[in-house]
Design brief:
Layout lengths: L37 H4 L11 H17 L6 E4 L6 H12 L3 E5 L6 H10 L5 E5 L6 H12 L2 E6 L6 E6 L4 E6 L7 H5 L3 E4 L5 H14 L3 E2 L1 H9 L5 H18 L3 E2 L1 H10 L9 H12 L8 H8 L3 H14 L3 E4 L2 E4 L1 H7 L15
Parallel strand pairs: 1-6, 1-7, 2-3, 3-6, 8-9
Antiparallel strand pairs: 4-5, 10-11
Helix pairs in contact: 4-5, 7-8, 7-9, 8-10, 9-10
Magnesium ion binds next to α3.
């Protein structure tokens, strides 16, 4: 997974500013999207997965049917915003089926030869997982069409009049794709996935349950109200909940004899500036740039990205989905517009002659 929040420096910082730095006080280098803890806490079986009831139910039926028929599972595509469990589902499936598992990331598959070894290594019924599948180059995508549909690959040998194509049969395998951008998949690729499953944001009780279970895994004592507080600030995303839990555990170990009480959780989360709806520093920067630089919008995501020194992809994948969900942002054909609810949340009032709708100021 190559994708991570990429922040190339903050426009607030003046590189020539020689004034003494503040002591390492409340400012903490904390990334709620950090993927480094994912594997440690990843559920291993379907029964360990919390929430996503519809996806889990459909998967149970698909797995049950495949096992009863003793046939490979049909190809599966998972789509949804980052950190919601696509990779988790993909890794659980082969464990449930008891089959081999290979994992590849689309950005690393630059030519058909890169994907060929995965296809020829795939045993009958095994799972080949391609992450970020929307980033497959067209040549590789076309190469895998016959592999997915007819379980064969067409390999071209030689050039000019000596050129010939050989068909190589493959074992029947299951392709699992994951994408944060299902809209970017071409129709032929999307249609080759018989099962398409959408993972959505989690509600607070499910996230609180994830926090409770994971604190048991981490052997850390946590009050139920503290789990609920972490869940509330995790913006519907288990990865964020896990990372906030790690931070609260560090804070509790350092300042509160290792027990995460309600008060400890609140103080820990305030220190990293994750507010009560879950906005972090980067979200607030996005909104403030939209308000201050673009007068509230409409503004294109590329332009906002340039102002923030942050790739537009990162904004679209990791910041905007949540802001849209909580009603702090509108996406219109003319660009992004900040909403009155966002202004109220940030404590900003629009000048009375320029009301808080459309272009603000
Ligand atoms: N349903 C769930 N129950 C419990 N924990 C979960 C669940 N879904 C995700 N998690 C936790 O969140 C972490 C991140 O999930 P995962 O890596 O599957 O997200 P993803 O959708 O693949 O994200 P990305 O798009 O960034 O690759 C996992 O390591 C796991 O600990
Ligand atoms: Mg993933």
């Amino acid at each position: 997974m190559a994708r991570q929040r990429i922040i190339n420096g903050s426009p607030d910082e003046d590189p020539d500013d020689e004034s003494p730095r503040p002591p390492l006080g409340p400012k903490v280098d904390f990334r709620p999207d950090d993927e480094k803890h994912d594997d440690e806490l990843r559920p291993q079986r379907l029964e360990d997965i919390v929430g996503q009831r519809k996806v889990v139910e459909r998967l149970r039926i698909m797995l049950d049917a495949a096992k009863k028929r003793q046939e490979p599972l049909g190809h599966v595509l998972f789509d949804g915003p980052p950190g919601l469990g696509k990779t988790t589902f993909a890794t659980v499936i082969p464990k449930e089926l008891g089959t081999d598992f290979q994992i590849a990331s689309a950005p690393a598959l630059t030519a058909p030869k890169d994907v060929l070894s995965y296809l020829t290594n795939a045993s009958y019924g095994s799972v080949l997982f391609i992450d970020e599948i929307h980033r497959l180059p067209p040549a590789v995508e076309e190469f895998i069409y016959p592999a997915m549909e007819d379980f064969r690959v067409d390999i071209s040998l030689g050039e000019g009049i000596n050129a010939r194509t050989i068909n190589m049969p493959l074992k029947r395998f299951t392709m699992i794709g994951a994408t944060t951008r299902s809209g970017m998949l071409t129709a032929p690729l999307r249609d080759r996935f018989v099962n398409r499953l959408h993972v959505d944001f989690y509600d607070e009780p499910d996230l609180a349950e994830i926090v409770q279970r994971n604190s048991r895994k981490l052997r850390t004592e946590i009050e139920p109200s503290a789990s609920a507080e972490i869940a509330r600030r995790s913006r519907g995303t288990p990865r964020k909940a896990n990372n906030l839990l790690y931070w609260c555990r560090d804070y509790a170990d350092s300042k509160a004899q290792g027990r995460i009480t309600d008060d400890v959780a609140r103080r820990a989360l305030e220190m990293i500036e994750v507010d009560h709806v879950g906005l972090d520093e980067l979200d607030r920067r996005y909104l403030m740039i939209l308000i201050n630089v673009f007068c509230g919008g409409p503004a294109g995501v590329q332009a906002i990205g340039h102002s923030m020194n942050c790739p537009a992809d990162t904004l679209e994948d990791e910041i905007e989905p949540f802001l849209l969900r909580v009603g702090f942002l509108q996406r219109t054909p003319r660009g992004r517009i900040v909403t009155a609810a966002a202004l109220a949340h940030l404590g900003i009032t629009a000048p009375p002659d320029k009301p808080a709708q459309g272009s603000l100021f």
